[in-house]
Amino acid sequence: MRAYNRQLCMHTMDIGVARPEELPAIVSLWNETFEPVYPLRLEVLQQLCRSRYQDPELLLVARDGGRPVGVIAGKAPEVSWLSPDIGFVSYIVVARAYRKQGIGRALYERLAKRLVERGCRHVCFGGDPAHLLPGVPQEAPPETWTFLRRIGARPSETMHDLLLDLRLPLPPRPGRARLRVAGPAEALAFLDRVFSGRWRADMEEHLAAGGTVLALDVEGRMAGFAGVYLPGQPWIGPSQFWSATLPGPAAGLGPLGLEREVRGQGLGLELVIGAAEWLRDQGSAFVVIDWTNLAAFYGRAGAHVWRTYQRAVAELPTASPVAPA
Description:
Elements: H1 2-12, E1 13-17, H2 23-34, H3 42-50, E2 59-64, E3 67-75, E4 86-94, H4 103-117, E5 122-125, E6 136-137, H5 142-150, E7 154-165, E8 178-181, H6 184-194, H7 198-208, E9 212-218, E10 221-229, E11 250-258, H8 267-281, E12 286-292, H9 295-299, E13 304-315
Helix pairs in contact: 6-7
């Protein structure tokens, strides 16, 4: 019976571009594997699909009899702050009943071909612009890494999401600098000067959706920034994607940083604590600081590791040479 089902499955399988009406089915595929820890909401997936970085031709589904049973989301972003030969896999999921039938490999090979056609030579799993995850989650089933190793992916750096419980007292803040809400033009001008790459692009999108950036003033001028995401705002920050697992309203914090001239003076920690106080005053019970390897630094404010991810990188097959005429 198992051999018959597999033969029937592959006979009726087709791979094509995802349709808008299939997004709820993609959410269900994801949640079948990850829901206890990473419960994906439809509005999060819809937001990611609206991103300027998501090429609809790189969101592929495998269908059995017209029903989605696997999905892979790829990106080939053309941005100044990334090498043009890097592509991404945002996520890949196959329904539990359809695993070990070559569906994941077929999805990946179809996507890899399209990435190569767009000039990509390497593919990163996670960490893409408008990402769902910074890397492969620690809770991924063992066969995920088996699959990645078989396609030649190399595990690389580890990063974390951190959680800060605002129901507990925060460390005292020295108050040497003033924290305030920055105007959008002021925030973007600061980022142009100090953090002109991905952080600037992310905060531009965040501000355009009505989000907030905090400014840290030192001696009367903006010397640091923090992106903050409030519960209930229409634009959902990546630090809030999994907030449904928390027993209270959760805000997001980050990215954040200081200009070079004021680093090494303890102002970074003051910025973190000040931003946490501001978010607590807005009604948040928790703060998630996503995608960082600075657990010890944020731990000084009371934050602890909440989620762990590991990036993986693979070489893409080169395009086949054109035979001479």
